[in-house]
Amino acid sequence: MFSTFSTESHLTDDRRTPWWERRWLLIGYIVATVIVTFQRFEPDRHGIFALFQTAFFDLIAGRNLYEVGVHRLGGYRYSPTFALLFGPLAILPFQLGVALWNVISIFGLYAILGRLLPRKPAQIARLLVLGDLVRSMQSSQSNALVTTLIIAAFLAYEDGRAWRGAWAVAGGAAIKIFPAGAALFALIRPFRWRAVLALAAAGVVFALAPMAVTGPARLLQEYHWWFAKETAEVRPMYAVMDLVDAWTGRTGPRWPTQLAGLVLLLLPVAVRRDAWSAPAWRLRLLSSVLVFCVLFNYGAESQSYVIAMTGIAVWWVTTPASRVHNLLLLLTLVFSTLARSSLVPVDFRMAVLDPPRTIVMPVLAAWLVMQVELLRQAPLSGVEAGQDQVATIEARA
User: Fold this and answer.
1) What is the pLDDT of residue 151?
2) Tens digits of per-residue pLDDT, 281-318?
3) How far apart are CA 309 and CA 190, in angstroms?
4) Which of 214, 227, 315, 316 would disulfide-bridge 287, Cβ 3.0–4.6 Å?
């Protein structure tokens, strides 16, 4: 946790603030959770949750998790480990499982933002992500949980807890592959070699965990089927690669664009070793990684953008105010959050708001600005960076 970002006066102000002023957004999150749960209370309206639930029973029954036509909504695309870990929810009555899944996902993100940021900027960030969070949970998606695990990994490494960070990274990667990028936070800390060993061990544990119910040969076959499914499908989604397809008029290979994005992500890390010790710089890197995990994800959907919106929200509340930042936030809220909501008629969305352009472009623009700022930010000592971040956060609040 960023203890350097808290001050005694801030804590004193919190104690004097009425409880309803400190908790009004928590009440809003509770209301949103109840509404989302009851909107999709019937099993046939919670296809993704049913997909996760069925995958668990298929795993323990020794069936192919990735066989085309077995599942709804295009089939299961997650790891065998996630199918196993979903077991405690899968065995519950359907409505109870859905309700608990929503509570874990929504309030996990609410809580982790409270650990990452002081109260006022955390409240602003929670408010900014709420629209995308609700849209993701209306489909019972795992994106909110992935976001929580990425931030949890970051906080663990900030606290010097290599094993806790490793479990968070491995857990996120077991859901979706891209959260493995959170391992980058370990590589810029002084204990990087210990963290790498912990990451390797946690990764092996998570990868082999399903062996308890499948046996070695069957698990290896499941991974083979999973890899074949992921490499065989090229579907129009909501990533930079799809934006390139829209511009060029043809569907090209994904890896060149993904490689270019990875180079841009790692460039500031490689050339700004002098800034690794600055908490403010590392926090900006967290925002960049969150956005990257969506922009260059070949499987990104509109519901995935709660991950990117969290990165943009954290970046906006913790960096100096500017017209550029404000404009990018506004464009993201309008074209990535509002334009994908039920407030905009479906026919208008499909006919006018071309998804790769409207949802990707403002987020990509914000990410490129983040990368420039990571390259240009003046190096500060840890103490100076913490003081600078406090001043920035309080100015935002």
Assistant:
1) 97
2) 999 999 999 999 999 998 888 888 999 999 999 999 99
3) 30
4) 315
- How far apart, in whole angstroms, are the C-alpha atoms of residue 75 and residue 73? 6
Q: Do 143 and 303 form a contact (C-beta atoms < 8 A)?
A: yes
Output 18-22 pairs: Cβ under 8 A, ≥24 positions apart. Answer: 22/119
CA distance 261 to 254: 11
Instruction: Give the rounded percent of residues in the chain with a pLDDT score beyond 90.
Output: 54
The pLDDT tens digits of the residues spanning 115-174 come to 999 988 999 999 999 999 998 888 888 999 999 999 999 999 999 999 999 999 999 999
